[in-house]
Design brief:
This protein is α+β, with helices and mostly antiparallel strands. It is built from 24 helices and 26 strands.
Length: 750
């Protein structure tokens, strides 16, 4: 069967809540015939793959995933959760019936054979948000703790010998589900798992007579599982909270009447009523009403912004002052919040180089530690006639240090926290690779219009050529620019409307990147172009005046027919209020900012001079691309609008789209800033640097604790129960440290 016939299939997989869950599913599924390009997104709980028809059936894939211990259903349905194997206890409740929407639980991805192997105790989706004692992991802690306390009590009331048998029973009962999961993992070709090491260590301890310590280790392992689950759950809450920003219902207006409907049933073109204090249920455009809109849930902007008819609004924003009638412009599944959630969920696929290195390291770390443990058990007794019990015990302690859980989760835990923290402030980065690249930025290139400036220039001078009226000049210019979204075009159209001038009909309109625009007007070719381009076509009637206006920091365009100048229009676009402060912050961070603009040198100098940065002017898109290539060796970030600057954005180490053009922001650039604030640029870089610092701390914690207890275990200073605490404790510490990024202050200079 040809690979060209392979089709894309997707499932929702529930219960993936630990570092190696994605790897476990990936490695199991990719071994099936006809399966290729397997991708598992932990945060999105999504399994996607290419499957050749006539090979493996979908039901076989689902059955395999269920045997791994997860719930699975075709994408778009809620995955029923397979009940995990645990010792007898209170029932977990019925599995959720299939529903119309998948549940989303975010986790921290990693790919290694370790914590989370087949049968690892995963919580039901219905258990999310419950107290720890009501989860499967919690019940295992309670059971093993009760068994251990009973054994201690039995020993206290009877004798040490009788107590030994009580601890033996407690250990065997507690380790049974762990051993079962280890056996399932072994059958699927994954011998090096924490369950396997736990089982070997516990059984080995029983063999050498350390029953009490074996039972204690089983209990501490269960406690560690609960702590890891709690910490991981908190790391997921940030993204989960984003989904709650959009209201579940909306007030739909039909034939003058209002009816309450489900927000996810809204369609493009429908009109909804949003009362004061209500959340906006969909991305849309205001039809009626003027008032402050609190966009902080979406962009992090602290102050409400006054919005009126014709202006766009985001789903999840709050109408703070008045009732608004809004026309829906996006499907519910495609609103800004949904797109942000998808971006954050899928960002894990863009793994940071550091994460990929740790992944490779973890592949041999566990087998290496197992080999060292075997040598510790065998060499001293066989070569030096040392005591078997002593060295077997020390070797067993080493086994419990062999799981690289903390190390593997150290990077994705930090990345997930950073993505969540950034998303709440309108700072979006597409994965760990982007975060790592942004942290290394040393040079930063800005587009001017709409980035460093407000992007809403105003016409300040109109200079018709001799024999041409101001109305005629505006009519031709607005006719050429009609339908254009360029800021200069919009300024000309606003001025024509204010003057009561109707645009002349135009056809065959096309943009000339870096030069202007042209169209057929009244049967002949007409242009709105830069003075330099106009001069080459004989369309500039007063070059000295154009130069004088540009020297005053204005942008000048020439309007002309073929060989017949019509006049000049001068516009000015002021720098954003926070631009100068942002440039100072960037310099304090050791970053050199520069402005790249297609505008004339005099206007560019006026803007750049006010901001205290360098500039390059008169640049076409290909010139910006070449400039970025020149700077690429130093690690360069490009900030632009994501459309005209697309080549430069793609060439830069990190391309960032700024502003509320969310289509471009979320689909074309490496990162996006949803607020029209230049100060968010140093904030984004500061977040990236804080994340990489957090990752370095996590790696140091994980490797440091392992190294310390590796030595102390060999020397006999620490035993089995300390070893298991070293493993689970390091994982919890790393996750909690990563959670600190959720409170990162974006205004702090990094």
């Amino acid at each position: 069967m040809s690979g060209e016939q392979a089709q894309r299939h997707e499932w929702t997989v529930t219960g993936m809540d630990c570092a190696s869950c994605g790897a476990k599913v990936t490695r199991a599924v990719e071994r099936l015939p006809g399966v290729s390009k397997v991708s598992v997104a932990l945060m999105a709980e999504r399994l996607s793959l290419m499957l050749e028809p006539g090979t493996t059936g979908s039901d076989e894939i689902e059955d395999l995933v269920r045997r791994l211990g997860y719930g699975v259903a075709p994408r778009g349905q809620e995955a029923p959760r397979r009940k995990p194997f645990v010792l007898p206890g209170p029932p977990a409740g019925p599995a959720a019936a299939p529903g119309p929407e998948p549940q989303h639980a975010q986790g921290h991805g990693g790919r290694h054979e370790g914590h989370g192997a087949p049968g690892h105790v995963h919580d039901h989706p219905s258990e999310q948000g419950k107290g720890w004692h009501r989860t499967a992991k919690g019940r295992l802690v309670i059971l093993t703790g009760a068994l251990l306390a009973t054994a201690w009590g039995f020993e206290l009331l009877t004798s040490a010998e009788a107590g030994y048998w009580a601890f033996l029973a407690a250990c065997l009962i507690g380790v049974a589900p762990v051993a079962k999961r280890a056996w399932q993992a072994l059958r699927m070709g994954q011998p090096f798992t924490i369950e396997a090491l736990m089982s070997i260590a516990a059984i080995g301890a029983l063999i050498i007579g350390a029953a009490e310590e074996a039972a204690l280790v089983v209990f501490l392992f269960a406690v560690g599982e609960v702590l890891e689950g709690v910490a991981a759950g908190k790391a997921r809450d940030g993204i989960r909270a984003l989904a709650d920003l959009v209201p579940k219902t909306a007030l739909l207006e039909v034939n003058g009447k209002t009816q309450e409907v489900a927000a996810d049933s809204l369609e493009i073109g429908q009109q909804v009523l949003v009362r004061p204090g209500d959340r906006i249920p969909a991305d849309g455009e205001i039809v009626e009403g003027i008032g402050g809109v609190d966009e902080s849930p979406v962009t992090g902007e602290s102050l409400p912004r006054t919005r009126g008819p014709g202006e766009p609004v985001f789903a999840g924003s709050i109408s703070a002052e008045s009732a608004l009638r809004i026309r829906v412009t996006r499907e519910p599944a495609d609103n800004t919040i949904a797109r942000i959630i998808r971006l954050v969920e899928e960002a894990e696929e863009a793994r940071a180089p550091t994460e990929r290195f740790i992944d490779r390291f973890s592949r041999w770390y566990m087998p290496a530690v197992v080999a060292v443990a075997a040598l510790v058990m065998l060499v001293p007794p066989l070569v030096f006639a040392a005591d078997w019990g002593t060295w077997v015990y020390r070797g067993l302690a080493l086994l419990l240090i062999g799981c690289p859980c903390a190390l593997v989760i150290s990077v994705p835990a930090s990345i997930a926290s950073a993505l969540s923290a950034g998303a709440r402030r309108g700072l979006l980065m597409k994965g760990g690779a982007v975060i790592e690249a942004a942290a290394d930025i040393r040079r930063l290139a800005f587009d001017k219009t709409g980035t460093l400036t407000h992007g809403r220039p105003a016409v300040v001078r109109i200079l018709p050529a001799p024999g041409v009226t101001e109305a005629r000049l505006l009519a031709v210019a607005s006719g050429i620019e009609a339908g254009s979204s360029h800021p200069l075009a919009q300024a000309i159209l606003r001025r024509a409307e204010a003057a009561g001038v109707a645009p002349l009909p135009a056809r065959e309109t096309r943009a000339l990147p870096g030069k202007g625009a042209e169209a057929m007007v009244e049967g002949s070719r007409a242009w709105v172009a830069s003075p330099r381009h106009a001069a080459t076509l004989g369309g500039l009637h007063d070059a000295a005046m154009a130069e004088s206006l540009e020297a005053q920091g204005m942008t000048v365009v020439a309007v002309f027919h073929e060989g017949r100048p019509l006049g000049l229009i001068a516009l000015r676009d002021e720098p954003r209020d926070d631009a100068a402060g942002a440039m100072r912050r960037l310099k304090a961070m050791g970053i050199e900012p520069i402005m790249l603009t297609g505008d004339n040198p005099r206007t560019a100098e006026a803007v750049a001079g006010a901001l205290g940065i360098g500039f390059r002017a008169g640049m076409l898109p290909e010139d910006k691309l070449a400039a970025i290539r020149e700077m690429a060796g130093d690690g360069v970030m490009m900030i632009g609008d994501g459309i005209n600057d697309a080549p430069a954005l793609k060439q830069a180490s990190v391309g960032v789209a700024m502003g509320s053009g969310t289509d471009v922001a979320l689909e074309t650039a490496d990162a996006a800033i949803l607020r029209d604030r230049v100060s968010d640029v140093p904030a984004l870089i500061g977040l990236a640097r804080a994340t990489m610092g957090n990752i370095r701390q996590n790696v140091a914690i994980a490797l440091g604790l392992k190294a310390v207890f590796l030595v102390t275990s060999v020397l006999g200073v620490t035993g089995l129960w300390i070893a298991i605490l070293a493993d689970t404790g390091a994982t919890v510490l790393v996750t909690l440290n990563a959670l600190r990024l959720l409170r990162h202050d974006p205004e702090r200079v990094g």
